């Protein structure tokens, strides 16, 4: 039962009145009419007999949100009392409960709460049981720049300086609030307002403007979701707000789903997949092409990871490998060849592509190279082939000390492959007959004096020209000039003899007299007579 003090009841002073029906009506803020009151009076500490007043007219309308009224008029008649009074209309003045500091909590309630009835900013808001004063409404107890009244409207705490709607700041915040850091991001509230960042979003700040120590929560948080805490990023001098600026080896918390699904280097493989593949999510040329699971960036498409002169995008279109400098379509070259391509040896001949370009040889033809520029190990494929077609593999020729590029420089005992290519079109013995024709003819391609004259289709060699196949003392060249047969020891011009007669000539009997030319020479007779 609530007690309300009032001061006047015509000539009777009543100190306290106990309301039963009327108080309930007051609290509800309703209108009432035709009600009755019962109260007991206390005079000089002695309780009088009960008085019942039957009202003829009793009407009061409470203002919105008002919980008490100051005065009203009522008509009454005395039904039963020890007082002799005429029925009539009297003014009754009600004195509201006392709220010394105007904070909307009565002094009596503040005493119960243990708060200071003289400090308008020391109260329990939930215990406000009367209307706060205008001064209290316009005050800012927590100094956050939002008046107490506005905070109640916003359903924020007028005693928590970090519980407010910044856009509703309607008075100047306190120095304490300005210097505080509500979101713990290391930037004071005042500086965040100057920067137009959110002083209640710990990930909305300008790092360069941090002017106080950030909170442990901020240090351990990961604003950009890259899996590296803010504190570690500051230590690493990376940007805690750029999810693609980090040292992967320093990831010390779980990255966000957004980071996992992002593609920091634009190579078309998500960050998460690159971590699974043990490739670098920040090196656009370190990837497994078969694992591309998102669209690569324009920058990646226009780049040339392997340096072969063909852009990554064109290599994907061509079906070649953008990471293999030796797998490309020469017709698609649009960039200068560089990097890995120059140091590679695409044809495996032991000469780098760069040196082959300088030499004017073909970096993609393992049999087109300058031997003295072989500085790299030759490839297994190159070792197994036979560049000159002599039937001996390049590897065996290297072992034998013969020239893998000379079809006429080989060890016949090392032949393991069919003779082909350059060997067939060559004329190893210089007799003017190709090796292929000699093979067909059954003559020896390595014996310049073993050939079929009718198959001479090539120029004879200097060496062949200078020798004397038939031993008649006349060189093959002179015999060709004389129109005699270099293979017939008895067909020669004696005037053209420049060499000692030998070989077939000595065993022959040119004049048919039954004596060999050699014996005739010994006998001093004429081998031609």
Automatic annotation (TrEMBL):
<protein>
    <recommendedName>
        <fullName>Gliding motility-associated C-terminal domain-containing protein</fullName>
    </recommendedName>
</protein>
<feature type="region of interest" description="Disordered">
    <location>
        <begin position="375"/>
        <end position="422"/>
    </location>
</feature>
<feature type="compositionally biased region" description="Acidic residues">
    <location>
        <begin position="469"/>
        <end position="482"/>
    </location>
</feature>
<keyword id="KW-0732">Signal</keyword>
<feature type="compositionally biased region" description="Acidic residues">
    <location>
        <begin position="510"/>
        <end position="529"/>
    </location>
</feature>
<keyword id="KW-1133">Transmembrane helix</keyword>
<feature type="region of interest" description="Disordered">
    <location>
        <begin position="456"/>
        <end position="529"/>
    </location>
</feature>
<keyword id="KW-0964">Secreted</keyword>
<keyword id="KW-0106">Calcium</keyword>
<feature type="region of interest" description="Disordered">
    <location>
        <begin position="98"/>
        <end position="118"/>
    </location>
</feature>
<keyword id="KW-0472">Membrane</keyword>
<keyword id="KW-0812">Transmembrane</keyword>
<feature type="compositionally biased region" description="Acidic residues">
    <location>
        <begin position="428"/>
        <end position="441"/>
    </location>
</feature>
<feature type="transmembrane region" description="Helical">
    <location>
        <begin position="12"/>
        <end position="32"/>
    </location>
</feature>
<feature type="region of interest" description="Disordered">
    <location>
        <begin position="428"/>
        <end position="447"/>
    </location>
</feature>
<dbReference type="InterPro" id="IPR059100">
    <property type="entry name" value="TSP3_bac"/>
</dbReference>
<feature type="compositionally biased region" description="Acidic residues">
    <location>
        <begin position="387"/>
        <end position="400"/>
    </location>
</feature>
<feature type="compositionally biased region" description="Basic and acidic residues">
    <location>
        <begin position="106"/>
        <end position="118"/>
    </location>
</feature>
<dbReference type="Pfam" id="PF18884">
    <property type="entry name" value="TSP3_bac"/>
</dbReference>
């Amino acid at each position: 039962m609530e007690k309300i003090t009032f001061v006047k009841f015509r000539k009777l002073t009543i100190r306290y009145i106990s309301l039963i029906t009327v108080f309930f009506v007051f609290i509800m803020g309703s209108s009432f009419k035709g009600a009755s009151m019962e109260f007991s009076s206390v005079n000089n500490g002695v309780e009088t007999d009960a008085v019942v007043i039957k009202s003829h007219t009793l009407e009061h309308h409470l203002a919105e949100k008002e919980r008490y009224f100051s005065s009203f008029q009522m008509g009454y008649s005395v039904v039963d009392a020890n007082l002799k009074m005429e029925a009539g209309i009297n003014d009754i003045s009600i004195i509201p409960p006392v709220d010394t500091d105007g904070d909307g909590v009565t002094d009596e309630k503040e005493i119960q709460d243990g708060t200071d009835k003289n400090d308008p900013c020391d109260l329990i808001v939930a215990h406000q049981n009367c209307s706060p004063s205008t001064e209290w409404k316009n005050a800012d107890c927590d100094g956050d720049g939002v008046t107490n009244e506005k905070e109640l409207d916003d359903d924020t705490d007028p005693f928590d300086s970090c519980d407010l709607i910044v856009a509703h700041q309607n008075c100047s915040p306190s120095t304490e609030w300005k210097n505080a850091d509500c979101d713990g991001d290391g930037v004071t509230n005042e500086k965040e307002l100057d920067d137009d960042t959110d002083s209640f979003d710990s990930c909305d700040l300008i790092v360069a403007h941090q002017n106080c120590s950030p909170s442990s929560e901020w240090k351990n948080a990961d604003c950009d979701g890259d899996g590296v805490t803010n504190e570690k990023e500051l230590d690493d001098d990376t940007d805690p707000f750029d999810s693609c600026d980090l040292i992967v080896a320093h990831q010390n918390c779980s990255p966000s789903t957004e980071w996992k699904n992002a593609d920091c280097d634009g190579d078309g493989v998500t960050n998460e997949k690159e971590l699974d593949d043990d490739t670098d999510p920040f090196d656009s040329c370190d990837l497994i092409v078969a694992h591309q699971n998102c669209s690569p960036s324009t920058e990646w498409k226009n780049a040339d990871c392997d340096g072969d002169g063909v852009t990554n995008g064109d290599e994907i279109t061509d079906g070649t490998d953008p990471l293999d400098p030796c797998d490309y379509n020469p017709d698609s070259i649009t960039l200068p060849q560089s990097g890995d391509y120059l140091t590679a040896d695409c044809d495996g001949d032991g000469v780098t592509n760069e040196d082959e370009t300088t030499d004017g040889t073909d970096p993609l033809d393992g049999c087109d190279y300058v031997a003295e520029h072989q500085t790299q190990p030759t490839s297994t494929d190159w070792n197994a082939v036979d560049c000159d077609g002599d039937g001996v593999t390049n590897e065996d020729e290297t072992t034998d000390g013969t020239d893998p590029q000379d079809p006429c420089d080989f060890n016949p005992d090392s032949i393991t492959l069919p003779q082909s290519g350059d060997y067939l079109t060559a004329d190893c013995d210089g007799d003017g007959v190709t090796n292929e024709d000699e093979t067909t003819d059954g003559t020896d391609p390595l014996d310049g004096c073993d050939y079929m004259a009718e198959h001479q289709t090539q120029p004879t060699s200097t060496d062949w020209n200078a020798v004397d196949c038939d031993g008649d003392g006349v060189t093959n060249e002179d015999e060709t000039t004389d129109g005699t047969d270099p293979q017939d020891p008895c067909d020669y011009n004696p005037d053209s003899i420049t060499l000692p007669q030998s070989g077939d000539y000595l065993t022959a009997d040119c004049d048919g007299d039954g004596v060999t030319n050699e014996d005739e020479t010994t006998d001093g007779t004429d081998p031609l007579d």
